[in-house]
Input
Amino acid sequence: MANNKGAEFERMLDISNEMYSNKGIAKIVKRPTPIKALRVVKGRIVKATYDKKSTVDYDGVYQGKSIQFEAKSVLDLARMPLDRIESHQYDHLVECASHGAVSFIIVYFAKYGITFVYPLERLKQSYRASEEGGRKSIPLSEFEEHGYEVKTGRVPVDYLVAVDAMMTKYA
Output
């Protein structure tokens, strides 16, 4: 993530995931972006390029199900531009869901200090509408109406409570 708020959000997700693991709730990890070292000095990579496209930010297992999600931070907008999700990431979420995974995006609206789990089914609708000439972003009001707000609870970003609610609705 390019901005500090985004890096901070991912750091909070990493802490939350470590706490979930320590409590025996879930095992979810951040996937590293594959890189190819171009120049190494004294054992440190000083120049690199992306080796291949990554899939999504996080994956793991929760309640016996695969969990796959992309994390996004929106700094100062009341909407999340759809182009923030790369087509290969979207395709990965869709493919994993077709095999039974719980797939979603989690979006932090920094200006408002709120986070939502947004179901893949709703994301698909937004993508279809965009491809048919509709909105190129998802407004905050859509997240408020069809997403699941994430609160602090057992962990700093207790998104699995929202995932539980989402899984109940989309089961």
Notes: The first strand starts at residue 26 and ends at 30. The mean pLDDT is 88. The CA atoms of residues 85 and 141 lie 19 Å apart.
